[in-house]
Amino acid sequence: MRGPSSSHTAGAFHIGCMTRSILGGTPRRVRLAFDPSGSYAATYVTQGADRGFAMGLLGKSLIDESFFTSLQDAPRAGMEIDFEIRKLANPDHPNTVEMDLTAVDGTQLQIVARSIGGGEVEITRVDGRPVLFNGSAYETLVEVPAALEPVVEDSLGENVAWIEEQVSAADNGKKRLVGRSREPLPDELRREILDLDKAARIWESTPVYFVAPGEPMFTSAAEMVN
Question: Residue 177: its pLDDT value, please?
Fold first, then answer.
């Protein structure tokens, strides 16, 4: 990584990388907001968080020398980037950021994320949907009308090697399925799900760390103690 801070510089970079993957490329426009009572508000310039976010969103390596000119380079790369300090809806961590992005094709994306130390990060909301993406695997959120859940869940189970069991939730007549895998969602499967109903949506974040190749030694504190 590049310093000066693992949580602010590398963490911001990881959030930028994951957000870029969910959006599907470099955004045309992005606005990042920090809570005035949080750490980012006071240190995002001096700790290089602004440049870390920019490098991740531009798809560059954090140790590339363009780190130092990334904010000036962004407009030339077609990305307008702004930072603001304002009261956030739920600043549950000092390093919380709210991101509003617009893709080249006009697609909108909203991300809430936090850098939790040592370069580790968590995306906690994607377009208002609660998630917990941490960049250690391919992390996928699928939302479909509730009536389609059995079909989609079976299809995902048959075609994706999940690292752990999918998590499901219901909201306003829709079902959300969240899962983590070692490989990205197959393109054909993605198309099949989206073709089922115009209300179907898929968000996928690519890993920022090496994906663990083996099975977890345990999946709960009780198993660890045993």
Answer: 96
**Which three-class secondary structure state does DSSP give residue 115?**
strand
d(C-alpha 88, C-alpha 37), whole Å: 10
14 close to 56: Cβ distance less than 8 angstroms = yes
Give me the pLDDT at residue 216, please: 76
Q: What's the residue count for the chain?
A: 226
CA 182 – CA 139 distance, rounded (Å): 9
Positive or negative torsion for Cα 40, 42, 46, 47: negative
Q: Report the pLDDT value the prediction gives residue 139, as an integer from 0 to 100.
A: 97
Write down the pLDDT at residue 158. 93
- 59 φψ region: left (φ > 0), alpha (ψ -120 to 50), beta (else): left
Backbone angles phi, psi at 144, to 5 degrees: -140, 160
3 state DSSP class of 191: helix
**Whether the Cβ atoms of residue 74 and residue 32 lie closer than 8 Å to each other:** no
% of residues, the chain, pLDDT over 90: 86
Token reading at 94: 């000092």
HSE toward the beta carbon, residue 172, CA cutoff 13 A: 3
Helices (H) and strands (E) in the chain, counts: 7, 10
| CA contacts within 13 A on the Cβ side of 200 | 18
Instruction: Please write the tens of the pLDDT for every residue from 70-115.
Output: 999 999 999 999 999 999 998 989 999 999 999 999 999 999 999 9
